[in-house]
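Handoff note, outgoing to incoming analyst
You'll be picking up this chain. Sequence as last confirmed:
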Amino acid sequence: MDVQPPITSEEARARLVAALREHALVIGEVTLTSGAVAQYLVDVRRAILLREGFLSCGELVAEQARALDATAVGGMTMGADPIACSALAAGADVKAFFVRKEQKQHGLARRIEGPVLDPDDRLLIVEDVVTTGGSTIRAIEAVRAEGHELVGVVAICDRLAGGAEAIKAEAGVPYVALTTIDEIYPERPDR
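Most recent structure output, in case you need it:
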């Protein structure tokens, strides 16, 4: 296995933007999670589940986790899963967790999966794409309902459609978008 030397934040960000442009941008009519119809989609997983995107994402999220003194990184399952794992792979000294849409009705009947989160853990919520902020807010509500401290929210791509403002109003903690749709698809029709 070939090991790459550490990259700078600027290099990681440039590589992430390039990976998102090349692999994640889908142009054509789609229905978003919110139910809205759009003329494009940013499917972040298509980029960050490839080596270059995964490494870049991990470096940037790990950096944010360190800056916020987070001890756990995660969010709504599917969107947050590869992001939290990339932070672990990049050396973030955190636990990864995933929030289910609903509490499991069998087994341990948990809504938050992963290692046990301690009362003093400091959680960083991560999201692949923010449009309205709905799924991020649901993840925030779930971790707070279990008494956990939230220290910040990191989105891989912000569609600049009001979600950041909704998240900031709900969370009351720092919100960081690693990229925006302006960088991924600057010639988009809804600009």
